[in-house]
Amino acid sequence: MNLKQLSTLLGLSQTTVSRALNGYPEVSEATRQRVMQVADQHNYRPNTRAKALATGRAMAIGHVIPLSTQHEMMNPIFGDFIAGAGESYSTAGYDMVLSLVADEDQSRAYHDMAAKRNVDGIVLHAPKMQDARITLLQQIGLPFAVHGRATDIAGPYSWLDVNNTSAFQRATDFLLDLGHRRICLVNGQESMDFAFRRRRGYEAALQARDIAPDPALLFAGEMTEVYGYDTVRRTQLLEQPPTAYLVSSIIAAFGVRRAIEEAGLTMGRDISVITHDDDLSYLRNGADVPVFTATRSSVRHAGSRLAKLLISQIENPGAPPLTELLEAELTVGRSTGPAPNRI
Amino acid sequence: MNLKQLSTLLGLSQTTVSRALNGYPEVSEATRQRVMQVADQHNYRPNTRAKALATGRAMAIGHVIPLSTQHEMMNPIFGDFIAGAGESYSTAGYDMVLSLVADEDQSRAYHDMAAKRNVDGIVLHAPKMQDARITLLQQIGLPFAVHGRATDIAGPYSWLDVNNTSAFQRATDFLLDLGHRRICLVNGQESMDFAFRRRRGYEAALQARDIAPDPALLFAGEMTEVYGYDTVRRTQLLEQPPTAYLVSSIIAAFGVRRAIEEAGLTMGRDISVITHDDDLSYLRNGADVPVFTATRSSVRHAGSRLAKLLISQIENPGAPPLTELLEAELTVGRSTGPAPNRI
DNA sequence: ACAACAATTTAAAGCGCTTTGGAGATTTGC
DNA sequence: GCAAATCTCCAAAGCGCTTTAAATTGTTGT
């Protein structure tokens, strides 16, 4: 059923039917009702492609996901982020277009999306510190919003980020207050902007108490379970092993816990752990009592907010870029306790 | 840059330029070269919407993801599946359109996709045993392929599935061979078809040795870490606690391990565990030596294969439905050992 | 040199929708 | 009662591409 068929069926012109369905005032309420009803009856939906061509709006938003060898983006948070974004999209009537591309094809992917005009805007994931993609998109002129920020980028752009610095500063302070002095940072890859900011927060807290960060306690890597496990194994062999771990992801934190327990130690007593918790739907931080003390910030919520932010950007062209900074919440669980008195 | 501009630039008609770019034989090799070069120079890409309208092919494939309250689909495997599918799509030139909808809006979502004509085919996720969506899509007539199968559906359709029954039968056999008799099944939600098949495999193995399955050892639920943890806690309080756990997901298996270790027991010695392992990129089953004995089947690979299967379905209409059954591989790790001799 | 044929190229229609510029019909003001 | 204003509605153009049908050019055999 297309517009033509529907309009002959109704004995009206395509113009009138189109207007009736799209809520234009030039059509009488009576005919609008009639049109609506018959359209509904026949389950009419305007052909997206034709509509997009005619209006110049694709009603779709693109996500370019790099398929790097390290799968940096295809990580656990992806699903939840997409779920949040998808929620916002579908209530606003937008489709979500995913484009998974090899790392090296990324800039071409953005150019393509812009030239092919199959999306009205783009969400940029996992920004690095100076991210060429941002400058690229600024040039291309397609609306976009970044999940995260880039530290070294000139010119304004829309973004939504967690306050990583303050979250990790706060978490480090919490551990310091408990008497810990050797705190191991199990961070994400340093090229990622969020990881840089987290380290900065960690270092700021140490420096505020005149503690020099020990490079032997700084780790950066892809946040897998095995990475957390290995890091603990390795650091516990040090002459002065850390008494606390500050971990960038709950997945890695599971590995951290495994290593701790395998060593016959007890988390929260012998060794303290704080993790960042993206509040993933399938990896909740315990049920009633949180397992880990954590800096929590729902990535699903972030997805939902960022999508709305981008949509508003698209629908108000010319408006200045929008930004939103979410604060993580420190939830105290059973993984932290006073630093043990070493002899 | 659109076709019109490009063709006046070249001093050719739109027809010729279009044909040159799309590889039709009616254009001389010399002009084709020239067209290609200039198009490349100006970074020309045909407008997707116009092309889709003209050809009737959207060059996009839809995934409808139910956003149920339980987030059954928004689970860890989602990211990897999508990564695999996306790979296949992008090499074949297709876009991926995700539509996240509330559970109750699902059938409308399928109807909409069909009527709006913005996708050429649909991937159906997480089928239930009798899944109304399959019959719906059969009626609608849009090409589709199912990730998994439905047991109680008449009429053929395309699907790709892991041989869940044989995998779990094999795993159960393995445990039985080790002397375990009380094996607890920590399964996914029973409404899901895969969970049903896994239970069937488990029961078949028991019955083959004349062991009656104990209902107190059968669990079904959403496969979170906490679910695995709770199930072990609960079952270890039984008069005759199980000596082995057969788990449907590595996430739940992490919870199982946590409970075992928290109880002061050793996995692989006191209690054996086998898990199904979807070979997730960020949750590898250990590094060199697998942590868990597992029935492994890469969900990313499944995504990639299913996408290809659907594309071939789309490009050869009229061909009979395609199906593919993947066998899971049993990898022996350190989580299994002989059943302890209880007194 | 000219018909016959093949090789290139083009004009124009069409995909299904929105939207501009009017046209009829109806109401209003005096 | 009639011009002006207001409601409704419509024909047709246009979005950027593909594709059909036809025109143009080039090649060949005699």
Summary keywords:
DNA-binding; Rossmann fold; 3 domains; 434 Repressor (Amino-terminal Domain); 12 helices; 43% helix; 6-stranded mixed sheet; elongated; 6-stranded parallel sheet; alpha/beta; 343 residues; 16% strand; Lambda_DNA-bd_dom_sf (chains A, B); Peripla_BP_I (chains A, B); homodimer
Overview of this structure, please?
Two copies of one chain form a homodimer. Chain A has 343 residues and is of the alpha/beta class. Chain A has three domains: 3-46, 434 Repressor (Amino-terminal Domain); 60-162 and 299-327, Response regulator (Rossmann fold); 164-298, Response regulator (Rossmann fold, 3-Layer(aba) Sandwich), CATH 3.40.50. Helices cover 43% and strands 16% of the residues of chain A. Chain A has twelve helices and twelve strands. The first copy, chain A, has helices at 3-10, 14-22, 29-41, 48-55, 76-92, 106-116, 132-140, 164-177, 193-208, 225-235, 250-262, 299-315; strands at 60-66, 95-101, 121-124, 144-147, 158-162, 183-187, 218-220, 244-247, 272-277, 293-296, 323-326, 329-331. Chain A has a six-stranded parallel β-sheet, sandwiched between helices. In chain A, strand 8 (244-247), helix 11 and strand 9 (272-277) form a beta-alpha-beta unit. In chain A, helix 6 runs parallel beside helix 7, helix 8 packs parallel to helix 9 (193-208) and helix 10 crosses helix 11 (250-262). The interface between A and B is large, with 59 and 59 residues. Chain A binds a DNA duplex (30 and 30 nucleotides) through residues 2-4, 12-16, 18-19, 22, 24, 26-28, 31, 46-47, 49-56, 117.
